[in-house]
Amino acid sequence: MYFVTAQEMYDTDQFAIERIGVEGKLLMENAGRAVADQIELFVSDQKRLAVLIGKGNNGGDGFVIARTLLQRGYDVEVIVCASPSEIKGDAAYHRDVFRNSGFTFTRYEDVENLGHSLKEKDVLIDALLGIGVKGAIRSPYNQLISFVNQFEGEVISVDLPSGLPADEGVKVDQAVQADRTVVIQYPKVSAFLEHTAAYYGRWEVVDIGLPSTVIQSQQSQKRVWAEQDVSNTLPIRDAFSHKGKHGKGLVIGGAVAMPGSIAMTSRAALRAGAGLLTVATVQETITALASTVVEATYTTLPSEGGYISDIGSVDFSYDAIAIGMGMGRHSEAERMIQVALEKTQGALLIDADGLYALKGNLSSLKARQNPTILTPHPGEMATLLDVSIPELLHQPFAYSKAFAEEFQVYVVLKGAFTIITTPQGHQWVTVTGNPGMAKGGSGDVLAGILLAMVMQSQTVEEALCNGTWIHGYTADLLVQHQHSTYDLLASDLIEGLAQTYRALLR
Ligand SMILES: NC(=O)C1=CN([C@@H]2O[C@H](COP(=O)(O)OP(=O)(O)OC[C@H]3O[C@@H](n4cnc5c(N)ncnc54)[C@H](O)[C@@H]3O)[C@@H](O)[C@H]2O)[C@@H](O)CC1
Ligand SMILES: Nc1ncnc2c1ncn2[C@@H]1O[C@H](COP(=O)(O)OP(=O)(O)O)[C@@H](O)[C@H]1O
Ligand SMILES: [K+]
Q1: Which of 11, 243, 268, 453 sits between 20 and 30 A of 138, alpha carbons compared?
Q2: Is the C-beta atom of 441 inside 6 A of ligand 2?
Q3: Backbone angles phi, psi at 434, to 5 degrees
């Protein structure tokens, strides 16, 4: 499923109107009807409804929704929050159709009067502002939004919560806190940002038949990776396959004081399907791991002060290598990352301490001939970019895209919504996962799953999306059936992979 910026949505509308010849009025009719159909699914006709209508096209949708629900026998009061002369174009057309159908509306005067009208209502439909919102919210919408946010019944927003920007990088001034949002055609970017997603409440998308031609022709496509995508791309294992076919992977990391992280990465890689796995680390860590990760083979690396001091002796001809987990942040790490970047012949995944060490080696990324994958959490990504974490999270799509394109890498920016960006600038978001994963070790498990995934027969893009989706989905299954968001451990995710695969392969 694509998701879009406000401009991409306008371009799509424009394409439908100018190139295909569908009139804007008809698009609005389709949009309003589709939203009304959706509302009908979860609001009983015994409820008392009010629709708040603003001056733009979002308000135009509101007229169609109100007319459709009235014709279907709903009790709907329509309150227009703009002067009639302000309403123009398609919205004015639908205001007239509404009136000519024999229905009436009242005009918004002040909050006190509105309070009176809404006292007996169960559901408020918010069609005040859509994707056209700009800057600080002006009167009367600022009072209206505060008012809606005090309403005790259910608030359903049309397209997006009024006042909320559709795009990233825009400050939120004031916005409706919706219980539900019925999104028209494509989710907007703000549905996937940490600071704006919650305004939507539960949301669902209605299709109004707009063509995806414009979105598909764009360089910067943004899509949600969903269960169907996993089912379509996760390779089916061949009955005659052998371990060599499922990838030969190497994990480099760990230190005397940090044996846990590579233990988790390695076990996760094996559970996720890696054919053969080798762990390269310091001797003490091998001793600690040998009894817990019995399926792996080991390479002892020289150490100094409990940390790996050199990786020059490593065989770099693996199908894929993951480096950095539990490696420690010390002066030698930067040199070792440089060696890994130069010598790794297959895909190279850099995580955790490896990302800190990468900071001084960024220019070497471009010279790599094979895929490089970076898996930062927001703190690591902010460090790589030299920006603050809030700045990064204000526009994570733009920052990830700029970085991935400049350095020709795959970036997996982890979070409640994980953003996967390809070197070509294509972006995917996975929405599986829950706060039970907000614990040390979850990222190490992800690194292992992704290592295994990039060695299976799928594209790197598919591998990263599938791995991230599976990681989060496993946590969701575990929290639904065995665990809670409090007690879930990163190691539970490794064992939980069995349930996910069984569900997917069924
Ligand atoms: N053909 C189309 O264009 C379609 C549009 N659709 C609907 O139209 C919406 C977009 O319509 P518009 O572009 O008219 O945008 P809005 O409905 O968001 O209205 C924008 C208007 O609100 C006012 N406004 C903007 N920022 C404000 C602020 N900070 N304070 C106070 N007033 C402010 C401005 O006068 C602006 O013209 C979509 O969200 C969707 O609901 C759908 O009907 C599908 C078809
Ligand atoms: N609230 C959440 N909802 C969904 N996923 C989450 C949440 N918190 C963390 N995660 C996931 O858990 C992982 C944590 O990774 P990271 O921060 O690197 O942890 P670690 O310190 O264990 O390496 C990421 O994959 C992230 O997407
Ligand atoms: K709205």
Answers
A1: 11
A2: yes
A3: -155, 170
